[in-house]
Amino acid sequence: MLRLIVQRLMALVPLLFIVSVLTFSFTSLLPSDPVDLILGDTGTQEQHEMLRERMGLNEPIVVRYVQWLGRAVQGDLGTSFFNSVSVTTALMQRLPVTLSLTLVSALIAIVVGVAAGIAAALRPRSWVDRLATVGATIGQAIPNFWFGLLLVAIFAVNLRWFPATGFTPLSASPVDWMRSVALPAIALGLSSSAAIARQVRSAMVGVLQQDYIRAARAQGLSSRRVILRHALTNAMVPVVAVLSFQITVLLGGALIVEQVFAINGLGTLAIGAVRQQDIPMIQGLVLVMVGLVVVVQLATDVVYGLLNPKARPS
Amino acid sequence: MSDEALLEIRDLRVTYWGKSLLGFKGRAFDAVKGANLSIRPGQTLGLVGESGSGKSSIANAVLGLVPANGGTIRFGDVDLAAMRTRYPPDVRGQIQAVFQDPYSSLNPSMTVEDIVTEPLRVHTTMSRAERRARAVDLLRLVSLSEEHLERHPHQFSGGQRQRIAIASALALTPKLIVLDEPVSALDVSTQNQIINLLYERRDELGIAYLLIAHDLALVHHISDRIAVMYLGHIVEEGPSDRVYRSPAHPYTRALLDAVPLLDPDAQRRRRASRKAAPARETPRLAAQGCPYRNRCPHAMPRCEADLPPDYPVDGGGTAACYLFDAAAGQGSARLRAVPA
Amino acid sequence: MKTVPSDGAAAAPTRSRRRAGGSAVIVSIAGAILSLLVFLAVFADLVSPYDPLRQNLIASLQWPSAAHWLGTDDLGRDVLSRLIHGCRIAVIAAGEATSIALLIGVPIGLFIGYRGGWWDWIVMRIVEAVVSIPGIMVAIVILALLGTGLHKAMIALGILFSTSFLRLARGVVLAEREEVYVRSARVVGASDGRILLRHILPNIAPPLIVQTTLTVGAVLLAEAGLSFIGLGVQPPDASWGTMLSTAAAFMDLHWFLAIPPGVAIILTVLSINLIGDVIRDGVGRGIAVAARPDAGAPRHAAPAVVEPSAAPPPRHRPDEVLRVEGLRVTVATADGGELPLISDLSLSISKGETLGLVGESGSGKTLTGLAILGLTSVALRTTHGSIVLNGRDLRGLSQRQIEEVRGNEVAMVFQDPTTSLNPAFTVGSQIAEVLRAKHGLSKPAAWARTVELIDRVGIPRPAERARAFPHELSGGMAQRIAIARALSCNPSLLVADEPTTALDVTVQQEILDLFRDLQAEFGMAILFVTHDLAVAADICDRISVMYAGEMVEMAEVGALFARPRHPYTRGLLSAMPHASDRMPPLPTIRGNVPRPGTWPAGCRFSNRCDFRIAACERRIPLAGADRQVRCIRADELILEAAQ
Q1: Shortest distance, CA C42 to any CA of chain A (angstroms)
Q2: FRET label pair with B103: which of A206, A247, A306, C452, CA 20 to 30 Å apart?
Q3: Which CATH number fits domain B40-67+87-243: 3.40.1210.10, 3.30.1330.80, 3.40.980.10, 3.40.50.300?
Q4: In degrees, to the nearest 5, what angle opens at C-alpha B296 toward C-alphas B295 and B299?
């Protein structure tokens, strides 16, 4: 198992590297000039030049990249062009918020999706199957932020069961945290749960036709055991592969859903950074998000290896 | 003699590489480790072996589907191995193939006419009408009819699909056809129909066949010579009747012994002289020495050290086994002493 | 070596016919919605009642009325008009982004898929990097450079979605390259370009169409999202996304504003996804809906002939373990009829005896084994007959009772050992599981017994091997494990379905010896299904020959080989490769095995038989007691055995 982890890590490091190169080179295309933003119209030409020199902006791009990377690895992602806050600090403040929203919605999506998918696969063409399939199809067509609006209107404004806006950190009060994260997580998880349900259903249907399922039945093992142990273990293999992609999607969706619920997560940072062309912030955001995705991918690779022995290094 | 050979393979090596991390080349696996074969024009060579013997790799190398990693494949005047799968059109047209699985060897979205005339379209400048006429001729050669031209592969049975594949292979009247397990996926009576067909066409058109199969008895009916492969090496070669009736190499003998007889009494007697054998591990052999030494009842210390060369055998052909080293006082005497 | 299984493939027509009806309804509704969308997009100016930008602050935030069918928004603009103009934006957006994605992704994907090598490596690493960034973020970053607005947003989305087309195209090329017919094309000498065009491209169309519909839906949702956060379409233009953005601000005052744009998005995306689903389900690989897999099967059911209860049931033998009488298995046909796959099958096996069930593909031999265990697919029904195992009729048992019988009294070994073992678990755990589930052994006791069994079937280093996974074992070893598992609960009957067909001949010999050995020790009865008469000669005491769903001859093994009495048996014997020493032409049986539904009335072998007479047109009963044959001329004909 350790070998598997090491092997996957080795494959993921180049990924981070390539992402950082892509982001850095892309953002260097942006016309925004930090010196102009800082000094504005004040200051002479020479002062502009001096500041440029001081900030290392005249160096060739490769050198600037290496400097940036060196600092980034130590945790320093630079300073925002606008409020001169440390990018790292700003990100670290907002990260737990977006992260908890993403993880809770992932959990909801997985639980609902897997349960629905199994139920549908076990009784093909029954009403359960039709309901799950139709539900999944419609669910994938609903924009998650619109669903969020509805949830707010019904459950927060009307019934007052949940707060309409805002976010309480877990450390402050677990109960309040759950209440504040519930509606956004449900809204966010909707279309993911639909996608997962379809994946699970088709994987299960495929697995149930395999020879080894028939062989297990021939051995007289009970239906329940055959389905839950023999079939599900193999069906989850392609599903797990899809899960890490789903979590990436959820992370992106969180950026938008946060706006509906006025949650101060990475989303507001991102939108602001784009409008203001705040290059260090954009770079930092991309790096942090990819970092998260890489961690998730590592976790799913490990689970994948557990479920599928052929994927383990021999 | 060898001047007349149509196809002459000397010391052929074929290697596959696995995949490793990040997509670079992984471990090397030698599928063929130095093979020697030759086929004369109009002759049929049967290449027999079990799974993992490397017989399909030789077929793929001759067909230019995988590059050879060593040795030569002389075809007429040219060395195919040196071309590293880039065969010029005139060479390609002379070597055609029929593959094993009749259900995936024909493109499902093409009609029979398309499939059979594809070689003509690639290599000749025949008009559509001329090609169609030729297609009708070809179908007749394989006992199918003109009305089949418009149909698609899935509308035919396995045996019929193999006939279509054979018709396509005959289109350019090649000098050599490589048949890779052409009948393994068919029922027994259909197998015989196809073998009969191949036999008749060969006689008429003077085509040489390289026939790859795992069934010695089947191969023996249609081949002039037989070569037996084991783990990448050719362990025995010779006239078809001699190899089938008086197998020399211990592996060939084991192969023939393993085929059940159609006589229950004889089979019972044979079984009585054996015991239920334990499973053999997949051998992970060191490079030198005879590949069969783990399983051979006659293994000697010599077999561990060096790969046996090809020794001549009474009745024609060779066997790569020290039992036939006349210089060491072995040879024919030993052959008779071995229990059947 | 495989031969085609005949496991009720004819069942497909029923279901697909029914589904085709349902799909047609769905497709028409979805198509209607999309046509409406395009219509409104094109004629938005003519159709919408008001100018979507015209403000009327007095009449803001109104509910639906006669003047404004969907009410007004915060600036008094007519919601319906804005909705209609939003259709235009939706169509433009979808068109732009999807086209860009296709034009970038497909050619690159095809290229790197076919070329491979460095190109493939570099591009795929970049694609993986881009894909690991959440999509919205990628779009946002691209917009940082390009600026906001509809067209810029669509370029960003186009670039984002091109990765999925790229991977799709590359995947299809990689898969097609491995196809045997592509290999054939290379042997023929077709150039790379020709192969790409003629052989690979036709097979890319179906998945590409499906992916396109998915992308269109995703683009619409993404555009809505981007406009919602203000980075896409800019106000005051009316896109459904900007309308939702306005609605969000006024949720407490006038929640109805959120409904029309939301519903519009949902309906559109839903319609597109449904059409994509139907296409994906309906279209086969490049063959298109026109071609059907079983084009040979007749439309009408076989004539419902009540077959004369044929032979007297097999004589009762001492120590009888299995007794099948008059078995009949059918499959449902497209028009509600029933097609027999096995008819009038009777056999019996005693303790310690091996009965061979020999036949070619389509004879029904595998189906017989499955029917005994009750494992035939749901489309098949056993309509007549009894299957009596150790004195109990299996056909009358409940699900729970059958599960009890399986494993304990009857077990099965399948043809392909590598697929009959679960790839996710170690081989030892699969045997131990059976022992624990069925006999309640404790974990250590089950494991100990497992290692014993693995040792008994001749696997060296059994304790170590028990921890291996199926893919780590050779075919022969895996089959030994499968046999160990089958025998773990000491069943009285073992059904072996072509257990050596997938193995090399030297390994086959060892496995057959193993069967004999185990039978001598455990004493079970064996039903040995095979297509190879010589294998049957090796291991069977008696042999039943099946042809076209019925038994045509049954005899003790020596007698069958010495004096076959049915013309089919004799044909089969002489066709075996090691039967004749002659050069070609080798003996054949003219014609082909008839598929279910095309069986001749009367003797099913009659159209291929050299000895047929007029009387062969009628149903032939199985005659005899210890030795049975289904041929009215059996007594007259002296059939030479092989040679």
Answers
A1: 24
A2: A206
A3: 3.40.50.300
A4: 125
